[in-house]
Amino acid sequence: MTAITVPAVQPPVGDPNLFTRARWAVSDTLTITRRNLLVWVRVPAYIMFTVIQPVMFVLLFRYVFGGAIPVKGTTYVNFLMPGIIGQSAAFATFGTAIALAQELKKGVIDRLKSMPMARSAVLAGRLVADTGRMFITILILVGVGYAVGFRFQNGFGLAVAMVVLATIFGLAICCIAAFTGLAIGDEESVQAFGLIWLFPLTFVSSAFVPISTMPGWLQAFAKNQPVTIVIDTMRSMALGGPIATNLWLSVAWLGGIFIVFVPLAIRAYKRAA
Distance from the CA of 102 to the CA of which of 52, 62, 80, 155 falls in 20 to 30 A? Predict the structure, then answer.
């Protein structure tokens, strides 16, 4: 008579520990990041349109306005490039808001939430992917800047620091964009709203012209808003000049944006239906 072997009953497995849950969350985030980045591979036109706008700004301001805007102590192209890079990092966040609004409207976020994966991975994966896209755009802009006459004048280390600061600045604005995209939930409305608040911040700043050329009543706002402070820090890193004061102010502004808008984005994501 053949003996039947009964498998031993396995004891119930307890909840995974904190380290295991963190490892799963990181793995899920990287999977969603890869999903979002595949758009670049499968839709090459997306890469072109992502990069062509900031390159167009460089060429327009360099060759159309450059001769009409005097800058003390340096050439206009050297003055311009940190501003263009900062502006492009901020404008790259339109993609974050629009993509989240589209996925919310189409029910993609609901489907991802229903899967056995870390709930944080959807939002985190979008932010990581868009930060990577932004970083590549910044590097391309540096290359274009070199082609039209821009030069770093303060050493390699501070040049790298400028690129890192621009990327962190873009990530901070991405958090605002993520909140607006999830809170509004409609891509057309999100795009219109982004133009309302982002264009004044970037153009009423030191990105393209010295603030001293603006009307007196506008200078107070332009000097003390975060875009100007971050771009002035980037410009000092690239060209030389005092860094410490503006750097600490930049850290304070960016830290404040993260503290306020990361919880708001998470809350909007949890409430998204």
Answer: 52
Q: What is the pLDDT of residues 104-152, one digit of tens each?
A: 888 888 787 778 877 788 888 899 998 998 898 999 999 999 999 999 9
Q: What region does 6 belong to: left with phi over 0, alpha with psi -120 to 50, or beta?
A: beta
Q: For the chain, where are the alpha helices, taking DSSP H only?
A: 18-42, 44-60, 76-91, 93-106, 108-113, 120-147, 156-184, 187-203, 216-224, 226-239, 244-271
The whole model's pTM is what? 0.87
* CA–CA gap between residue 144 and residue 81 (Å, rounded): 10
Asked if residue 9 has pLDDT above 50, the reply is: no
What pLDDT is attached to residue 11? 45
DSSP string, 113-128: HTSSS-THHHHHHHHH
The pLDDT value given to residue 273: 56
Contact between 86 and 225 under an 8 Å Cβ cutoff? The reply is no
d(CA 148, CA 185): 40
- Which amino acid is located at 254 in the chain? L
Q: For residue 207, which of 58, 97, 100 has the smallest C-alpha distance?
A: 58
pLDDT digits (tens, 9 = 90+) for 142-153: 999 999 999 999
Residue 52, helix vs strand vs coil: helix
- Would you state the pLDDT for residue 14? 52
Q: Which residue has the tokens 């056995």?
A: 116
Side chain identity, residue 105: K
Burial label for 156, CB within 10 Å (0-12, 13-18, 19+), is exposed
Q: Which two tokens stand for residue 120?
A: 């944080």
Domain boundaries, the chain: 34-271
